[in-house]
Amino acid sequence: MTGTGPVTARFDTSRPHPARVYDWFLGGKDNYPVDEELGRQIMSLDGTARHIARTNRWFMQRVTRWLAGPAGVRQYLDIGTGIPTEPNLHQLAQRVAPESRVVYADNDPIVLKHAEALLRSTPEGVTDYVQADVREPEFILRRARESLDLARPVALSLVALTHFLGDEDDPHALVARLVGALPSGSYLVLSQLTADFDPEAVGRGVALYRAGGVTLAPRDRAEIARFFEGLDLVQPGLVQVTDWHPELALDESTDADAVISLYGAVARKP
User: Fold this and answer.
1) Which domain does 129 fall in, by range?
2) pLDDT score, position 82
3) Residues in contact with 55: Cβ distance below 8 Å, sequence separation at least 6, in sequence order
4) Which of 24, 208, 225, 250 is an S-S bond match for 31, by CB 3.0 to 4.6 Å?
């Protein structure tokens, strides 16, 4: 099984981890009491937090159906994939196009534990897993080349990832490096937390994550738009994730009263 990398595969159950907190929000079972505790604290301050997590997941699903269908994409690099929750990206893409090739990358050892499930592919396609941190773009790209042809278009998925990178990580440069390695016709998919709509609730969440030793960096619309510089935004552009092609939704139970503090967009590399 592929999945080795520079990240030491050990579990730290003494501190919450974003992937496991997210798993708890989605109703998963692959989390620890410390993750549930942080999730419940966030819910006590913002009752929409679980719905926001699910809304972000639905955004990924709509985007993948569009990429695999009308856009005709057959290769995907998903960084910060998190703990697999069905249907995951490869299942959605290969349901439309069985020959789709998908590489996942994440730095959490608990995701490595589930890599066997991630690696289940259609016979026609490929599903691979790389244990690596987004701060190691060269390593990710080198490993991705073992399963993907980077001379052909690739959809780079960075869903709910960049807000776990502080400004000291220079996330815009990291994204630019990854996009720069992809050919014309590739796509960038990105969603990111913002405080534009509910600064008080987001500020409380940032403080809770910080207390748990986790960076959470909301960004305004202009800062998020910088991730897409030099790319052609797919309509409707950079919007709240609920507004990205809602007609593609399947089995979504949207709360019309919830404030969704996430921007999302898809853009094509010319």
Assistant:
1) 18-250+257-268
2) 84
3) 241, 242, 254, 258, 260, 262
4) 24
Residue 263, in any domain of the structure: yes
The SS3 assignment for 245 reads coil
**Cβ contact 267:187 at 8 Å:** yes
The CATH number covering residue 110 comes to: 3.40.50.150
- The answer to whether residue 66 sits within a structural domain is yes
Residue ranges of alpha helices (H) inside the chain are 18-25, 33-45, 49-68, 89-96, 109-113, 115-118, 137-144, 171-180, 199-211, 221-225
Beta strand pairing call for 75-79 and 101-106: parallel
Distance CA(37)–CA(58), nearest Å, equals 25
Q: What is the pTM of this model?
A: 0.89
Residue 7 lies in a domain: no
What are the Cα distances from residue 180, in Å, to 58, 103, 156, 172? 27, 18, 11, 12
Half-sphere exposure (CA, 13 Å, Cβ side) for 147? 27
Q: Which helix (H) or strand (E) holds 158?
A: strand 155-159
Structural domains counted in the chain: 1
The two tokens of residue 211 are 């207390």
Instruction: Count the helices and strands in the chain (H runs, E runs).
Output: 10, 8
Mean pLDDT by 10 residues, the chain (270 residues): 43 78 81 87 77 90 97 97 86 97 91 78 94 96 97 98 96 98 98 95 88 90 98 98 92 73 97
User: How many other CB atoms sit within 10 Å of the CB of residue 116?
Assistant: 11
Q: Is residue 5 part of a domain?
A: no
pLDDT at residue 256, rounded to an integer: 63
CA distance 261 to 92: 25
Q: Is 45 exposed, middle or buried (0-12, 13-18, 19+ CB in 10 A)?
A: middle
